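tool_call: predict_structure(chain=1)
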Amino acid sequence: MIKLLALDMDGTLLNEAKEIPQAHITAIHQAIEKGVKLVLCTGRPLFGVLPYYKKLGLDLQNEYVIVNNGCSTHQTSDWSLVDWQELSPADIDYLFNLAEKSEVQLTLFDEEHYFVLGGKPNEIVQNDAKLVFSDLTEISLEEATSGKFRMFQGMFLGTKEQTDDFEQRFAEELCQRFSGVRSQPVIYEAMPLGTTKATALSRLAEILKIDSSEIMAMGDANNDIEMLQFAGLGIAMGNASDHVRKNKADQDSKSDEDKEDRHESDESTRPESNEKENHTGSTPSVDNLYKPSTDEDETEEVSKDTTDEAEVPQVETEKVEAKLKEVEALLAKVTDASLKDNVTESLSGLRNNLSLQTMDNNGIMAEAEKLLALLKGSESVTTKPEA
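tool_result:
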């Protein structure tokens, strides 16, 4: 039973235009209505999250956001800090010295500022500041280490080639003292040692008395790996990096092996019994993400739900995914911009529903077939002439 949804932002919640598709907003509201806690988990600073949170329309909800790659956690009722890790003045001095030995530029975040050290901000820094809706504040090393500001994390920004060089020369050394991650081609991030999205999520789960097995996490980048491994259900997005995909595949393989070992052990130690075994499906869906019940009625509710599900056989997930790919293939041939935008958003919503399981497979399949029919009936679909 899923009780908490940990959701990465860039590349997961947000599309390529850095917008939240309406279908995603609808799916999130459906999950929250079922009692699921929403936790946005991002490398962004708090001020880079606030405009999106307003877009989600959750002003009346008391949810949580984990920002700065796990360095700080805020509750959304008043945006106060409930947990944080910060860089020491000695940490900042060390990071600054690394930046001085390379061509990347060091930036720092507190709750309100996007700080730049080492002179005028480079073009990469300027572009990143726009993405998080922030002005840049130039600061000296003396000011940064004065203790006046609570600095959560440091970021090294440069061109891909400059960041490649920085990572090659300093990553091994840096990771002896910090949690370092190459989150994007042009960004290398440094957090206090042992700090990740997963560690922050783990501490929050303890506060909320939620077990890791009751958490669903979704992400796509290298700074999501630990979070996907920590959650009972970790979902690597279709656009996930190769590194994320490999780690997720390795984790799934190990999980399957562990299950087989446990199964063999159970078989050898289980006493004989004439009672029927109850193999209740363990795959979470929003329909049973949160279902308050007492010990007395829990068995009855599970039995009833299982019966109801059996009455309506669901299309296999593989077939649904194949149908969505069919829609995507035909969509690539559409020339009408308006139609393409509308279908793209609808398709994204269906994929999101499939991942979050906020709509059953039959419903998603039906909607996909409607999109397919719409595209096939459109005059704006280009087709190759027959030979």
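agent: The two ends are 54 Å apart (CA to CA). Proceeding to next step.
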